[in-house]
Specification:
alpha+beta, 8-stranded antiparallel β-sheet, 5-stranded mixed β-sheet
């Protein structure tokens, strides 16, 4: 009897302990100040909170986690100390291996039950420590229409230790994305959403190096199976209807148009007949570069070599010419499919045509296909929103009218563009803290602004950011004297409205009636245009207010 009671007691204790411990996968709901740190799991019990995750960076680069790290309760405001770390040494420079990552766990003091969410903060005195906001400590309730199961493997590529998942067209420089770890060459993720839309998946390490091969599929009920390779296209399998049809179309057009081209290219690669000796030498320099600045300098030399027509062999140039002819035939074949199949797959391919578009004639054809076959359909699909914004952005041209918008300033106060520039000649300056050319352009406009700000000219800047602090630091450093607003996570779709969705920024000079005078002008061109308006004003005072 005693043994039975003992066994029962132990079982009860085990059940009680299990009941008091909960595990939350992908607990981070808010923004983070860094891509170098990711928490993939939270284990919560009466005795501790354990966060498990990975540190990421290039091989031989280091990441450090401070022993001063704490969790801050969202409901109570309490601060919970870091007790210990495993897998890493706190306050120590942890250099990344060839896998680009290092797994670890952090154990914190037990959290007050009222705190359903916490923030992670390194508490660095200088204020530049890692922060991760809104870490959920309760099991999340899933109330979505769609459950898309993503599973896959990585074929012999240690650098693929982290994958990026996001709706297709997302710019990870300013918008959030899902980080998926690869463990022992395998990965999986359960995507829950309400809309059938295209997603893309690719390796974080490839993205960081500026060249990646995305895997595209639709978010729909069913399973997506993927095999990723470092040097060739991914293999994708699915019985989900939309993805299955997209894969069928790609396979069909591959056989009709692209497979033979790929074979010819592979042959040239094996024979080392794609890059010239000069380009090969620069490629080797890139591989041996010790810093990001050094890489940028070498890439600039590569671009110059390409501009001079000395980067590729004559054999490869012949293949490129042939490729252009085949692409033209494919484009027409694809358009006929789009016209004949006004489905979500057809809409996706139409959007892809926009991304590959080169001239106005193509734009007119695409617009006609959309208006005659797709307008009014798929109203709640993000691709429909994209098409509407793209059509509106066609008016952003010389002689066209600017598109109005409202965005907040650094303090969160909303400003409407039309009210800020009413009755003035204005430069609309779309920029980003991470866009070097944008900031150099903005800085060059400061003397022009100072010279003409009291003569009917103004500038309104908008920064495209993931975090407001990045904009604030850039404005403080560059000393822009005009009103600066912020576009966080592309919330207002301002860049898409202006037809520069893939760019860091763009500038547009408009007259006081809102007509676009110049697009992407230099400071000298803005000054010349303002001087021209001043002279014109002398002849007709009712037209322009510059004095």
């Amino acid at each position: 009897m005693k043994n039975i009671l003992l066994t029962f007691g132990l079982a009860f204790i085990g059940m009680y302990a299990t009941a008091q411990t909960r595990v939350i996968d992908y607990p981070v709901m808010g923004q983070r100040t860094t891509d170098a740190l990711e928490f993939y799991q939270a284990e919560v019990s009466d005795t501790a909170v354990i966060l498990r995750g990975d540190m990421y960076s290039r091989p031989n680069y280091w990441v450090r986690i401070a022993s001063s790290s704490v969790l801050k309760g969202k409901e109570t405001g309490k601060v919970y100390r870091l007790i210990r770390a495993t897998g890493i040494k706190l306050d120590h420079e942890e250099y990344m291996p060839e896998s680009w990552n290092r797994s670890f766990s952090l154990q914190f003091e037990p959290v007050d039950k009222r705190d359903r969410m916490v923030d992670y903060d390194e508490m660095i005195p200088e204020g530049n420590g890692f922060r991760v906001n809104d870490i959920c400590l309760e099991n999340k309730q899933v109330n979505k229409k769609i459950h898309c199961r993503i599973e896959g493997t990585v074929a012999n590529c240690p650098a693929y230790s982290r994958l990026m998942l996001m709706p297709e067209g997302t710019d990870p420089r300013v918008q959030g994305w899902i980080s998926i770890p690869v463990r022992d060459g395998k990965f999986s993720y359960d995507l829950y959403t309400d809309r059938e839309e295209p997603y893309e998946l690719y390796a974080w390490s490839d993205n960081l190096q500026g060249a990646w091969y995305p895997t595209s599929f639709f978010s729909e009920n069913g399973k997506i199976e993927i095999v990723l390779h470092s040097s060739q296209a991914p293999e994708v399998y699915s019985d989900a209807p939309l993805t299955k049809e997209l894969l069928r179309f790609k396979q069909e057009t591959g056989k009709l148009f692209f497979d033979s081209l790929r074979e010819e290219r592979e042959k040239l690669e094996k024979e080392n007949k794609i890059l010239t000796p000069a380009a090969l030498a620069l490629q080797e320099e890139v591989e041996n570069a010790q810093s990001e600045e050094e890489r940028k300098e070498i890439f600039q030399k590569m671009r110059q070599l390409d501009d001079d027509g000395k980067a590729y062999t004559e054999d490869y140039k012949v293949l490129e010419k042939k490729s252009q002819e085949v692409n033209g035939k494919y484009k027409n074949y694809e358009k006929e499919y789009i016209r004949s199949n006004p489905t979500i797959v057809g809409l996706y391919l139409l959007k892809q045509q926009i991304r590959r578009m080169h001239d106005t004639e193509e734009a007119s054809d695409i617009m006609h296909i959309y208006k005659t076959g797709y307008a009014g359909k798929f109203a709640d699909n993000p691709m429909t929103d994209y098409m509407k914004l793209w059509i509106a952005s066609r008016e952003i041209k010389l002689g066209g009218k600017y598109i109005d918008f409202t965005a907040p300033d650094a303090e969160g106060l909303p400003h409407t563009l039309s009210k800020e520039i009413e009755g003035k000649v204005a430069l609309i300056d779309l920029w980003a803290s991470w866009c070097g050319p944008c900031r150099r352009s903005s800085i060059s406009m400061i003397p022009v602004y100072e010279a003409y700000k009291d003569k009917g000219f103004t500038v309104v800047g908008v920064a495209r950011e993931r975090q407001a602090d990045d904009m604030k630091k850039a404005v403080a450093k560059d000393k822009y004297p005009w009103l600066n607003l912020i576009e966080l996570n592309d919330a207002g779709k301002i860049w898409e409205k202006y037809g520069i969705g893939n760019a860091g920024g763009g500038t547009f000079l408009v007259d006081k009636e809102g007509k676009i005078l110049l697009i992407q002008p230099t400071a000298e061109e803005v000054k010349a245009s303002l001087d021209k308006l001043r002279k014109k004003k002398m002849k007709d005072k009712s037209v322009y207010i510059l004095s």
